[in-house]
Amino acid sequence: MSEDQPGPQPEYNVYRARRRLLGKLRAPEQLRQVKRRQPPQRPSSKRPTPDSPDERRPRRDRPRRPSPRRLLRWLVASVLAWLALSAVLFFVSAQLEEGSSGRTDQALSSGGSLLTGSTILVLGSDQRPSGSREPGASGPGRADSVMLLRARPAGVRRLSILRDSYAQIPGHGAQKINAAYALGGTALMISTVETFLGNGLEVNHVVEVDFERFPKLIDALGGVRVKLRRCVRSQPFGGRVFRLRRGEHRLNGRQALAYARVRKNACAPNEDDRARAARQQQVLSAIRARVLSPATFVRLPWVSWRAPGIVDTDMAGPALFGLFADLATSTSTATHVLRPSGAGPQGSLVVSEQEKQRAVGKLLGR
Predict the structure, then answer these.
(1) Cβ-contact 303, 217 below 8 angstroms
(2) What is the DSSP letter of 41?
(3) Cβ(232)–Cβ(247) under 8 Å?
(4) How many Å apart are CA 1 and CA 18, to the nearest integer?
(5) pTM of the entire structure?
(6) Alpha-helical regions (H) of 249-295
(7) Nearest CA to 118 among 126, 109, 127?
(8) Would you give the DSSP letter of residue 99?
(9) CB burial of residue 1 (10 Å; 0-12, 13-18, 19+)
């Protein structure tokens, strides 16, 4: 046999080892542990391509969609921040106002607060701008509107006194109650109202509405809506006649002021001062409705800045803010008007003592 030829191959036996019994028991457990380590695969309707940004970016770096709860938190935080800004602007504007005079402060009665109950005299003067062609522009201003508010946390009660009511003015005799403002200013008006109503009524605070700045608040609100049962045609205001037809109207600041100041309505010659007081209450109710409307929320900082500027008052910023809040959130919007029992001297209106006692008791909640 040559060296190049291979020799006979040896025979080999192949043996297969048996699996141990312990190994059979461990195998399923090891498979379960491996499955636990692998993250579950979610079925996807669209198979991502390897070149997509989500495949190249790690899972932790992928942007998360904001949850509804997080969006709600952002919305609540934004609303609270907007309200806080409005409150700050209100307090800053109130600090810039001069306030009432020392004589007026001395005429006020101490005691009472917005928490325990406070009586507030609200006055509106009919003083015309100098140089205007309106009636009464050259003479002293009189109280165009006289109203009492009883402010407390449970609500706000209102009592309106007709400007032609016959009253005893201390030191000046008996005449129309609105003359007290022209004779002695706010201080004399406070004393006259307390003497006129009697029955233990005391005025704790006073608010004078500046009719020259009043339209700016209406314009900041975006106007107010009033509904007229009959047409209105007034005496000239600044050389012009103010007219409104029957129906619903949206008034700007100048129009709302003219509507509230209409003395004689040519469309209803039999109207007296009670109709005028009703128009003023209608404008105030329209302002309240506008303040509470969702559309005013966007304008709230501008309204908060304008509101303190239309009044002169002895009330500080927090107390004035509380009064505006009570007026806006009060569930009762009705105003009781002191009803006259007959006619008095020089076109005045006489109010009986029984009517005064009943009105004061209702105002103070007795």
Answers:
(1) yes
(2) P
(3) no
(4) 43
(5) 0.71
(6) 253-260, 273-292
(7) 109
(8) -
(9) exposed
pLDDT in the model for residue 199: 87
Instruction: Say how many C-beta atoms besides its own lie within 10 A of residue 252's C-beta.
Output: 14
pLDDT band at residue 293 using 50, 70 and 90 as cut-offs: confident
Lowest mean pLDDT among 114-123, 198-207, 232-241, 325-334: 325-334
Tokens of 330: 């009060």
pLDDT in tens, 335-351: 788 888 888 888 888 99
> Among residues 172, 129, 164, which one has the least CA distance to residue 145?
164
Q: What percent of the chain has pLDDT over 70?
A: 75
Quickly list DSSP for 304-358.
HHHGGGGEEES--HHHHHHHHHHHHH-S----EE----EE-GGG-EE--HHHHHH
Q: Are strands 118-125 and 205-209 parallel, antiparallel or unpaired?
A: parallel
Query: Hey, what domains does the chain have and what are their CATH numbers?
Result: 82-364 (3.40.630.190)
Beta bridge partners of 121: 148, 206
Whole-number Å distance between alpha carbons of 142 and 125: 6
| Residue at 30: amino acid letter | Q
How much is the pLDDT for 217? 87
Question: Which tokens in the block code for residue 64?
Answer: 């998360």
R_g (Cα) of the chain, nearest Å: 39
- Write b or e for each residue in 330-365: b if 16 or more Cβ atoms lie within 10 A of its Cβ, otherwise e: beeeebebbebeeebeeebbebeeeebeebbeebbe
The pair of structure tokens assigned to 45 is 């309707």
Burial class (CB in 10 A: 0-12, 13-18, 19+), 95: exposed
Tell me the CA distances in angstroms from 33 to 22, 37, 39, 41, 90, one per residue in order: 17, 6, 12, 16, 67
Task: Give kind and range of the element (H or E) at residue 120.
Answer: strand 118-125
Q: Which two tokens stand for residue 278?
A: 């009703």
Query: How far apart are alpha carbons 169 and 336 in whole angstroms?
Result: 23
How far are the Cα atoms of 239, 276, 300, 335 from residue 265, in angstroms, in the given order?
A: 16, 9, 35, 22
Longest pairwise C-alpha distance within the chain: 163
State whether residue 183 is helix, strand or coil.
Answer: helix
User: In whole angstroms, what is the distance from residue 299 CA to residue 363 CA?
Assistant: 33
Report whether 126 contacts 141 (CB < 8 A): yes
